[in-house]
Amino acid sequence: MAGVYSERGLTGLTRFGGLIYEEWLKELQGSRGAKVYKEMRDNDAIIGSFLFAIEMLIRKVSWRAEASNTTPEAIEQAKFIESCLADMKMTWNDIVSEILSFLTFGWSLMEICYKIRDGAKSSYDDYKIGWAKWGIRAQETLTEWIYNSDNELTGMKQMAAPDYIERIIPIEKSLLFRTRSNKENK
């Protein structure tokens, strides 16, 4: 019976050593690709202005949490989410700006960092757990994607300034944004 419930095939994603090789041009693969994309974003007037226009349009959107239904519990949960979003170190507009780096690189990863809302590092003193921040983990700091034996993404390995120590951000502690999905590519 186990055969019916077990997965037999793979997505076909070209992956080796924690890196993805789906880009046709070698110059756009891995860390070289991240440098090229960053250079195009920062130095090409047409690409830069196009990305800026998209970001400014999205940043003008009014964001809100909506209750899943009309029960008092659902309404209270939506209010709590909105209070958590407003109580982070960065403004929501700045967080959206960081998320939108996925337009340049095809993906962006934010590490979820928590805090106790105790009135010291929070505007609230209800002692609930909220978000301290959603920290961007820059695309050019990626050294490899980490997969388990079932070919499921389990984290991002990065090396970044100022200390260049290799760190692993588990997927359970992450928000991964991407422009599209193809072969479950991250």
Query: What is the CA-CA span between the terminal residues?
Result: 32 Å
Strand order of the largest sheet: 4-3-8
Number of domains: 1
List unreliable stretches of 5+ residues.
none
* Spatial extent as radius of gyration: 19 Å
As a percent range, the share of helical residues equals 25-40%
Total beta strand runs: 8
Find the structural class using helix and strand composition.
Answer: alpha+beta
Total number of helices: 6
Specify the overall morphology: globular
Strand content: 15-25%
Largest sheet: 3 strands, antiparallel
The ordered string of helix (H) and strand (E) elements is HEEHHHHHEEEEEE
Mean pLDDT: 89
In short:
With 186 residues, the chain is an alpha+beta fold. It has helices at 2-5, 30-43, 45-59, 72-86, 92-99, 102-105; strands at residues 15-16, 19-20, 107-116, 129-136, 142-147, 153-159, 166-170, 174-178.
Please describe the topology of this protein.
Layout: H1 2-5, E1 15-16, E2 19-20, H2 30-43, H3 45-59, H4 72-86, H5 92-99, H6 102-105, E3 107-116, E4 129-136, E5 142-147, E6 153-159, E7 166-170, E8 174-178
Antiparallel strand pairs: 1-2, 3-4, 3-8, 5-6, 6-7
Helix pairs in contact: 2-3
